[in-house]
Structure formats: C-alpha cells, structure tokens
Amino acid sequence: DAGVIQSPRHEVTEMGQEVTLRCKPISGHNSLFWYRQTMMRGLELLIYFNNNVPIDDSGMPEDRFSAKMPNASFSTLKIQPSEPRDSAVYFCASREDTTYEQYFGPGTRLTVT
Amino acid sequence: DAKTTQPTSMDCAEGRAANLPCNHSTISGNEYVYWYRQIHSQGPQYIIHGLKNNETNEMASLIITEDRKSSTLILPHATLRDTAVYYCIVRVDNYGQNFVFGPGTRLSVLP
Q1: Do B96 and A107 touch (CB under 8 A)?
Q2: CA B85, B101, B96 angle in degrees (round to 5)?
Q3: Which of A2, A29, A110, A111 has the CB geometry, 3.0–4.6 Å to A94, for a possible disulfide?
C-alpha cells in the first residue's frame, strides 16, 4: 500500500481565500484523523472520523474550518476564509480499528499570507 | 487521559543505547503507554506500546515500571536516522483512540 496520501504537499495562499486539503487513507482503515502542527501549539487533533462519520470535532478551531468524509477512501479539510494564523502543517492519519497504530501522511504545509 | 512528562531534549552517541524516560504518575489501570516519533518534516511514526509488561519489537524496547508510573523507551543501537522528537502518550485503548501529543523529547544522535 502507498500509505496515507495527502495533497497538496505545499499550499501558499492569500488571506481570505478558500483552502482545501485532501487525504486518502490506507485502504481498509476505518478511522481517519486530521491534525495540525505549529511551533507554538505542537501537534493538535482537529477532528476524527470512524466509518466515515465524524465522532469528535471539538478540536476544530472555529467555523471557518470544516471537514468531510464522503466515502471510505477520501476526506477533505476546508478552511474558508483562510487567515495567516492558519499557517501550519496539516497531517492526516488513518487506523484500522483492530490495531493500535495510527499511520500518518506526509502532511500539507499551508502558508497563508 | 493521564498526563505525561518527558525531558525536553537528550543527546546520545551513535551506536550507543538511547534511553528515553517518561513519567505518567496518574496513569489508570486501563491506560496504555504509546510511543511515537517524528523525524523532521515527516508525519509521526508509531514505535511501540504496552500496558504493563515490557515489550520489544524491531525498532525498540519499552520498559514499564511495576507501579506503571513511569516507562523508558530504549533504542538499543542509536543511529543518526533516529534523531527525532519522541512522544510518550498515555491513552485508554477505546473507540476512536484519538491521541494527545505533548511536546515530546528531542533526541539528537551525535556522530
């Protein structure tokens, strides 16, 4: 398997623009997680899905952030409108519920100017 | 979830064992100890986990004290590629299993 796939790997956008980050989990995994990492706050869980259903979105910073998982092989994290403080590396991870290990993708480095 | 405490940074000579400590004095009986690491510019990577027995895999060994209030991750023969931030996480292995990552220990393996 290719592992967790994220796109784009780098995104530079201007404040106010909409940003969509994409994630393809490992086939057969039924839990998916979105994390954000910054120097100031470290690695934070934003939201996680189980069997395509959002289970806990308490980490989503505000209404500008939304996440969807329309099927088992695809998820998006959208920021609209984006702000400079959203600049971070966003990681997607997936897990099969019978195991203990989360597999992380390579991340998307977002820069909002 | 129990809080964990780790040293901010550590150095280790290449080829020597790296011993990374973690304190989790408020751990509950049903909470597991997990270790992940993050190499620069990559996503975190699972290393090992345990409940109360010592565990070993191809990457590392995990030693958990009898009272379970602390643990040590051991990399038996550290290489330069082991330079990373190492996270100790305590979590009940339940539905969803979302992890809370603390600041971790920055391990520098020196030539």
Answers
A1: no
A2: 135
A3: A29
B75: closest CA among B11, B2, B23?
A: B11
Smallest Cβ–Cβ distance between B46 and the set A44, A91, A102 belongs to: A102
- Asked if the Cβ–Cβ distance from A33 to B98 is below 8 Å, we say yes
Beta bridge partners of A2: none
| Whole-angstrom distance, CA of residue A71 vs CA of residue B20 | 40
Chain B residues inside the 8 Å CB shell of A44: 101
Mean pLDDT over each residue of chain A, to the nearest integer: 94
- Tell me the C-alpha distance between A102 and A92, whole Å: 10
Q: Which residue(s) pair with B11 in the sheet?
A: B108
Identify the CA nearest to B84 among candidates B60, B102, B104.
B104
Asked whether the beta carbons of residue B43 and residue A105 sit closer than 8 angstroms, the reply is yes
Judge: B97–A31 Cβ closer than 8 Å, yes or no.
yes
Q: Is A33 helix (H, G, I), strand (E, B) or coil?
A: strand
Residue B30, amino acid = N
Residues of A in contact with B95 (CB under 8 A): 50, 55, 97
Sign for the pseudo-dihedral over CA of B62, B65, B70, B76: negative
State residue A56 phi and psi, 5-degree precision.
Answer: -145, 115
